[in-house]
Amino acid sequence: MNNHKINRLALVGIGLIGSSIAKAVRGHQLADHIAISTRSPTTLARAEQLELGDSYHADANNAVKDADLVIISVPLGAYATVAAHIKSSLKAGAIVTDVASCKQSVIIDMAPHIPDGVHFVPGHPIAGTEHSGPDAGFAELFEGRWCVLTPPDGTAPQAIETVSQLWQAMGSMVEIMEPAHHDQVLAITSHLPHLIAYSIVDTATNLEEDLKQEVIKFSASGFRDFTRIAASDPVMWRDVFLKNREAVLEILSQFSEDLTALQRAIRRGEGDKLQDVFTRTREIRRGVIDYHQE
Ligand code: NAP
User: Fold this and answer.
1) What is the pTM of this model?
2) I want to staple 63 with a disulfide (CB 3.0 to 4.6 A). Which of 10, 88, 115, 223 is the partner?
3) What pLDDT is attached to residue 101?
4) Within a domain: residue 24?
């Protein structure tokens, strides 16, 4: 990465992901200057208190001006507005990337605002926690995690390489994918599990008070892990389901059928069927551990 040290990196959005990038870039000395911008004065002041960057800008245009690389890390619903706002301040040859959890929608939202002569390399670090805001970031967030890049056809290879090297320098493994394929994969690995967690915890929320207290008290028996996932940022996840609607609905209908099959097996007392399914799923867990993604 040192061959490709970035002169000026602009971070637009400085929540969990933006602040983790700031810390990782600073820790690995990947940029000479980190310019930070975010929507609210409170968050900007907090980023400055935390010394996440070298300069702080209320207007994103001042952060991206002269930047070689711009990383936008805002909720999915905000990429179009941010891209439209900064487009005239991007310098020729600059690279713009993002970290959005859905790739087709972000390309639709951002690509029309990327000027000629500026490179656009959409990306998604598959790493996160249920926390948000600039205090939540940590430099190691991306270590050992995948980052998927979904560059449109014709993207300059050097721009892809620069973004790829940055993620690798922050400890990630990089994979290039078609945006639609990314959205399909993430619908099953991330979006559906979050929906299920939100749904189970909501079911508990609607229980009578006595029972609800017991669910919380005895939560170690499975429920606890769902509560962690269901504590994820409500705005981010609202946007994920609105933006990756088709892929989520498709996997959700498959899931509903499989759940109905399990329901039927329980009702009919078909222990063999249940055991078959639970044996198959163990294999997946072993695979996850083999890939060090546990
Ligand atoms: P976050 O901690 O909530 O931070 C969001 C940032 O975006 C803040 O700087 C916030 O600024 C700004 N922002 C919020 N609403 C905005 C708006 N309407 N217009 C402009 N800026 C706005 O979020 P995050 O977890 O870092 O997520 C950012 C992106 O990363 C999302 O696209 C998400 O899909 C992706 N991602 C998240 C995870 C995860 O686990 N969280 C993992 C991988 C990728 P102010 O505070 O100044 O308002």
Assistant:
1) 0.93
2) 10
3) 96
4) yes
